[in-house]
Design a protein that fits this description.
The structure holds two protein chains of two kinds.
Chain A: H1 2-24, H2 27-49
Helix pairs in contact in A: 1-2
Chain B: H1 3-35, H2 37-43, H3 62-72, E1 77-83, E2 90-96, E3 107-112, E4 118-120, H4 128-137, H5 142-171, H6 184-198, H7 200-214, H8 216-232, E5 237-240, H9 254-264, E6 269-274, E7 286-291, E8 302-306, E9 313-315, H10 321-334, H11 339-369
Antiparallel strand pairs in B: 1-2, 1-6, 2-3, 3-4, 5-9, 6-7, 7-8, 8-9
Helix pairs in contact in B: 1-4, 1-5, 1-11, 5-7, 6-11, 7-10
The chains are: A mainly alpha, B alpha+beta.
């Protein structure tokens, strides 16, 4: 059970931090938003395109 | 999960998804260009050409701006003046036949703040981007169209939540990120689960804020009623009394009224001016939306009311929570608060959502046509 939700949970938290960080600060917050929301895209690309 | 619970959640997921999928596909497809509407307008030249003038050329009075817009659209009355986004010397006037129409047929005029010269009209009502906008926002059906799309958005939220519940039984025996490639159907099932779960938080936020945005008209109407009620009951806070000499006295002009608002709220600038009787003002007051200069305060506007006759500046009440929620839901839906990289990520996540919607539809169709197949859409969870 723990194993099942570990990565979805981590990715969810990173996305949420990214979504909020961009709103509250401009320079570092924007960078945090790019990283946080880049994670789901990168994870999809990694597992989806892997042969 | 018991087999009965699994069947119930599968039913919820199937029907909430099926009902909203086509509309969600439409919203994803039309939303994609809207993410980049600013850049697209730039490219196709839908931008105002500002006449060259020496830097620091003073602005003419707001009353001259309004007079120029009225002369440009004879017979129409002004509803709002919007400050230019990246153009400090530009106002955009929104005009209509009355102040209390639904504003669907409103006309616009760009006015140079330095000369009161008319610089053209935005073509909101025509062209590709306008079609995308209307299909995305109200399906050309006004408020009922918005509320309908809002209901579809709520079904999407149900589909997302039930999808998360179903993720556990589907993935119990698989490593995170597994995409079984032997059969087309299992591959799409695994991709549906993978992309669905990693984009979940973004999809929940964009879906939920989209639903809130469909209530914009209702939220603003409620705020107007609140403000009027606060004024009538004397609950409004006076920021500048009529006889205050902290700014030039009122003379009935818009400029004097706005000057008094700016004097009452130092460090802020006027972002939008709503004329009396419009949705954002009250019947007797101008409302001036102010914005600060930090990333957060620049999104959280503050609305002050000013009586143009007496010069009294009021704040009806602190901004109610539902208006704060609405104001925050705009950037979180549009993805316009983190520069171009965030817009690109928004676009990619939008495309991934299309994959989730499309694969869900495909899996449902396959399961439907292959009723006796052992490995159908729900077959993968049989234990």
């Amino acid at each position: 059970m723990k194993q099942l939700w570990l990565w979805p949970g981590v990715i969810g938290v990173l996305s949420a931090v990214g979504l909020i960080a961009g709103l509250v600060s401009d320079g570092p917050g924007d960078a945090a938003a790019w990283l946080g929301l880049g994670v789901p895209v990168a994870v999809t690309a990694w597992f989806g395109l892997r042969r | 999960m018991s087999p009965a619970a699994l069947r119930r959640w599968s039913w919820v997921h199937k029907w909430s998804s099926l009902v909203c999928t086509l509309f969600m596909l439409l919203l994803c497809l039309t939303g994609l260009p809207l993410i980049f509407s600013h850049e697209i307008d730039h490219l196709v030249g839908d931008e105002v050409e500002m006449p060259a003038m020496p830097a620091g050329t003073p602005h003419v009075s707001l009353d001259r701006i309004v007079a120029a817009a009225e002369a440009h659209h004879p017979g129409l009355v002004p509803l709002y003046l919007f400050a230019g986004d990246d153009e400090p010397d530009l106002w955009m006037a929104k005009m209509d036949t009355r102040v209390d129409t639904d504003e669907r047929l409103a006309r616009f005029a760009y006015v140079d703040a330095r000369s009161a010269e008319i610089l053209g009209e935005p073509n909101f009502g025509e062209g590709f981007m306008s079609v995308m906008y209307r299909l995305h926002v109200d399906l050309y059906a006004g408020l009922p169209g918005k509320l309908f799309l809002g209901a579809m958005g709520m079904l999407l939220l149900v589909a997302l939540v039930s999808g998360v519940v179903l993720y556990a039984p589907f993935m119990r025996k698989l490593e995170f990120g597994t995409v079984r490639r032997q059969r087309r159907q299992t591959r799409w099932l695994d991709l549906h689960n993978l992309i669905g779960i990693v984009t979940l938080v973004w999809a929940l936020v964009v879906g939920f804020t989209g639903v809130i945005n469909t209530w914009a008209d209702l939220i603003l109407q409620a705020w107007q009623r609140d403000q009027v009620a606060a004024l009538q009951s004397g609950a409004a806070q006076t920021l500048m009394a009529p006889d205050s000499r902290a700014a030039a006295p009122a003379d009935g002009s818009l400029q004097a009224a706005v000057d008094r608002v700016l004097a009452a709220a130092p460090g802020m600038k006027a972002d939008m001016i709503a004329f009396p009787g419009t949705l954002r003002a009250t019947p007797e007051h101008f409302a001036v939306m102010l914005r600060g200069d930090t990333p957060l305060t620049s999104r959280m506007t503050r609305a002050l009311l000013v009586d143009p006759a007496s010069g009294e500046v009021l704040e009806a009440a602190g901004r109610p929570w539902y208006v704060t929620a609405f104001m925050l839901s705009e950037p979180l839906h549009f993805g316009d608060y983190g520069g171009m990289p965030l817009k690109i990520l928004w676009g990619l996540l939008d495309l991934l959502t299309i994959v989730v919607l499309g694969s869900g539809l495909y899996l449902w169709w396959k399961k439907r046509t292959a009723t006796s197949s052992a490995l159908g859409y729900a077959g993968g969870v049989r234990t």
